[in-house]
Design a protein that fits this description.
Shape of chain B: globular
Strand content of chain A: under 5%
Low-confidence stretches of chain A: none
Shape of chain A: globular
CATH architecture of chain A: Up-down Bundle
Structural class of chain A: mainly alpha
Number of helices of chain B: 13
Radius of gyration of chain B: 27 Å
Number of strands of chain B: 14
Largest interface: A-B, 26 and 21 residues
Number of helices of chain A: 14
Distance between the termini of chain B: 103 Å
CATH topology of chain A: Amino acid/polyamine transporter I
Order of helices and strands of chain A: HHHHHHHHHHHHHH
Radius of gyration of chain A: 21 Å
Oligomer: heterodimer
CATH class of chain A: Mainly Alpha
Largest sheet of chain A: none
Number of domains of chain A: 1
Structural class of chain B: alpha/beta
CATH superfamily of chain A: Amino acid/polyamine transporter I
Helix content of chain B: 25-40%
Largest sheet of chain B: 10 strands, mixed
Helix content of chain A: over 70%
Low-confidence stretches of chain B: 69-74
Mean pLDDT of chain B: 82
Mean pLDDT of chain A: 86
Number of strands of chain A: 0
Distance between the termini of chain A: 25 Å
Chain lengths: ~375, ~400
């Protein structure tokens, strides 16, 4: 019997499950229904989400397999063992840059959407800066704290989405979902690419390997963790379409946020559900961004072992701020998101697959 | 010492962050807008802008003022209206800030009234853009068409409500009592109609002297142009056809006297036979459930035979009612506001894709299709007394 379970600096299966789920649920959920339905024009888009989700689960399984083959080692060490130090160095730095770009994107996303719905006059720069400062504070401590925070936030976020969907159920019109199966299957497969973008995030495990206390169970935990966003995305997609119909969803910038605005409790004393939705939403965005920041710090520390964590976090701040301020409008922000997503597919899916294949072929095994 | 300085400096910097909120607006400074009216400007006014936007503001003090509390001289009106001209709604709303001490705040907007003239000009979609685009707006805002000028309607003094808009809103929710009011349609639904390029209907509100009445339906074609109006009778036919008349009264004539059939439930199903696309046949099944609300004739309401006769009479009446509406929709306006096209889209998607451009215009398939209404009316309750005379 353990007298003090959380005294160590390691995380168990539940933390991994919650963190993978929270990392993946991010900005994507707000825009996903629109992006999918713009391409498929009908409710059949759920097939695309399913294909994208199953594909992402497959790759998260590969990542988990890879790290359970090399217990307690991070990407840099695994890469070093399989393909040699110089290449591993390159991959690790790419990973760090990708994660930093991801942080910048999430921050900018929070700032832009809060500008649109909450603060009319507060400059985007200020909202970004404040969010960034909190992020720096968040990553100054050990990574384990972020994991614990995830276990705290995930139930709140899931509950919120269910409350949102339940409160809208009276407006739900099944007729809006018809007709089914009218979209060409090739189109559905191509569209699944868009949904894959929303499932990125599981690759953080490549650097959190060293703090997992049961690396063997990581496979199951991360797969289950990926199921949460898959189910939520499908539910939100179907309900949004049932509420608004395909045409309106396709022309609404943030359909999920509109869903929150639509909530009306009879009696008129509780009208502004979107402010609650938004506040809780920032919890999960904060977690995604903080973990991404943390992972990029871990990646840099892996390469430059002498770097001091806090100094690094503060030093990267201004650079991040400059990246955050680069996109000028929503179009450029989307382009930015697309680049990041391609980078994510590269370092989160292709690289681990290659590493696992090479490790199996060459018979390289971890220390344990 | 250095440490103390550092901490002190940090505290000073942090204090800067506490100076306040950019977007703070005190609740006393907000002018709550509950409703809007949009009119088309006359020619002489048009140089200031083609649209006239009217906002109805709430005077919070007026809401609390009791009757007969007029000693202090201030009027106990709970609202005031402001109108401005502009070419865009946004500019009109901004101009309004010149005229009021409290800037308009639109989160609580309940209703938008569109004048008939504006609807006929086909500008509905353009004036509604702001109300869909702006983040302060909600998709649940209801839309109605006014027979005269929207600002006139907004300036009525309802008897039992402090705010005209609240009065209109409650009245428009009365379809639960009457089938001749077209159910309230909100801006989100209108956007769906506009985007899917289908024709639609909106309830009408008209001013009669100092009173306001909500009844009848305005029909819009797929270019959002007002094409025609339905009267009360036709509206209730439309409501029954659409299956939205869950409550309402049908007056049935039995042996020179009337009975009132109170609708308590309505189930509508549509079947389409598309074997010949040139001649699509629809069957609309309507299952009514209801009570006898009033009889003027001495009827034995406990006899099965008598009830069956009443049910049959009700069915005939409903068929007459709906056929009247159908003739008007198919022959006079050619507008499918029942949603038959949507039904085809759902059930016979491939066929719909090929004929949708010829549905209401071009080949006018809608006007040519056969629509048969089959009604089954049931009487459940006959009231608490058998005979009153």
């Amino acid at each position: 019997m353990k007298s003090f379970e959380y005294g160590d600096r390691e995380v168990g299966t539940y933390e991994v499950f919650a963190s993978v789920a929270n990392m993946v649920i991010g900005f994507g959920l707000l825009t996903l229904p629109r992006i999918i339905v713009q391409k498929t024009h009908s409710v059949d888009g759920w097939v695309s989400i399913l294909i994208g989700g199953v594909g992402a689960i497959f790759f998260s399984w590969i990542v988990a397999k890879l790290i359970s083959r090399f217990p307690k080692q991070n990407l840099y060490e695994i890469g070093g063992a399989v393909i040699g130090k110089p290449l591993a160095l390159l991959i690790t730095l790419m990973f760090a840059v990708y994660m930093l770009a991801f942080v910048a994107y999430e921050t900018r996303g929070v700032a832009s959407i809060s500008r649109l719905y909450l603060f009319d006059r507060t400059p985007v720069e200020i909202v970004s800066l404040v969010f960034l400062l909190v992020l720096i504070y968040g990553v100054s401590g050990p990574s384990v704290t972020l994991f614990r925070l995830n276990t705290l936030f995930l139930p709140i976020v899931i509950m919120l989405i269910f409350v949102l969907l339940l409160m809208n159920i009276s407006h739900f019109d099944f007729h809006n979902l018809m007709p089914f199966f009218v979209t060409d299957w090739r189109e559905l497969v191509i569209t699944s690419k868009e949904s894959t973008f929303s499932f990125l995030g599981f690759e953080i495990l490549l650097f959190y390997n060293s703090i997992l206390n049961k690396p063997k169970k990581a496979v199951k935990a991360s797969t289950l963790g990926m199921l949460i966003p898959l189910i939520l995305y499908l539910l939100v997609f179907l309900i949004t379409l049932g509420m608004f119909g395909a045409e309106v969803t396709a022309s609404t910038l943030y359909p999920t946020e509109e869903l929150a605005k639509q909530v009306e409790v009879p009696g008129g004393f509780f009208e502004r559900f979107e402010s609650i939705f938004f506040s809780v939403w920032i919890l999960t965005l904060f977690n995604s961004a903080a973990m991404a920041f943390d992972v990029s710090l871990l990646a840099i520390e892996a390469v430059f072992s002498k770097a001091k964590r806090i100094a690094l976090a503060i030093g990267l701040g201004p650079i991040l701020f400059l990246i955050i301020m680069q996109p000028q409008n929503i179009d450029e922000l989307q382009l930015f998101a697309e680049w990041i997503s391609y980078a994510g597919i590269g370092v989160g899916m292709v690289v681990p697959t290659l590493l696992l294949l090479l490790a199996i072929l060459r018979g390289v095994k971890g220390r344990a | 010492m250095r440490r103390v300085c550092c901490v002190g400096f940090a505290a000073l910097i942090l204090a800067l962050g506490l100076t306040g909120c950019w977007d703070r607006v005190e609740i006393e400074d907000r002018g709550f807008v509950v409703g809007a009216g949009i009119d088309l400007a006359d020619e002489e006014e048009a140089q200031n802008g083609q649209f006239i936007l009217t906002y109805q503001f709430v005077i919070p003090g007026g809401l609390q003022a009791r009757e007969g509390d007029s000693k202090n001289g201030s009027s106990s009106k709970a609202y005031f209206n402001l109108s401005t001209n502009a070419n865009t709604m946004f500019a009109a709303a901004r101009k309004m800030s010149y005229q009021t001490s409290r800037s308009p705040y639109l989160q609580h907007m309940r209703m938008i009234l569109i004048s008939r003239k504006l609807s006929e000009s086909g500008e509905l979609a353009s004036v509604l853009d702001l109300f869909l685009r702006d983040h302060e707006m909600r998709r649940a805002t209801k839309i109605m068409v006014t027979e005269g000028d929207a600002r006139e309607v907004l300036a009525t003094n309802p008897k039992n409500e402090k705010l005209p808009v609240m009065f209109f809103e409650s009245t428009s929710l009365n379809p639960t009592k009457s089938s001749s009011i077209y159910p309230p349609t909100n801006i989100g639904e209108v956007q769906a109609y506009i985007l899917s390029k289908s024709s639609f209907a909106l309830p009408i509100i008209r001013k009669l002297g100092n009173e306001v009445s909500v009844s009848g339906t305005a029909l819009f074609d797929n270019a959002q142009k007002l094409k025609g109006l339905l009267n009360e009778e036709e509206t209730s036919g439309l409501n029954i056809l659409r299956g939205t008349a869950k409550d309402g009264v049908i007056e049935v004539r039995v042996n020179d006297e009337y009975i009132a059939y109170e609708i308590k439930g309505l189930r509508q199903t549509i079947q389409a036979d598309v074997s010949d696309p040139e001649h699509i046949r629809f069957t609309i099944h309507l299952e009514l459930e209801g009570n006898v609300g009033e009889t003027q004739e001495r009827l034995d309401l406990l006899s099965a035979h008598q009830l069956a006769e009443l049910e049959e009479k009700t069915e005939q009446k409903v068929i007459r009612l709906t056929n009247g509406t159908l003739t008007k929709l198919q022959q006079e306006y050619g507008l499918d506001v029942i949603g038959l096209g949507k039904e085809l889209d759902r059930r016979h998607h491939a066929l719909w894709q090929s004929i949708k451009d010829d549905w209401e215009q071009g080949e006018r398939y809608f006007s040519r299709c056969d629509i048969e209404v089959k009604v089954r009316a049931k009487i459940r309750i006959v009231g608490s007394t058998l005979e009153t005379k």
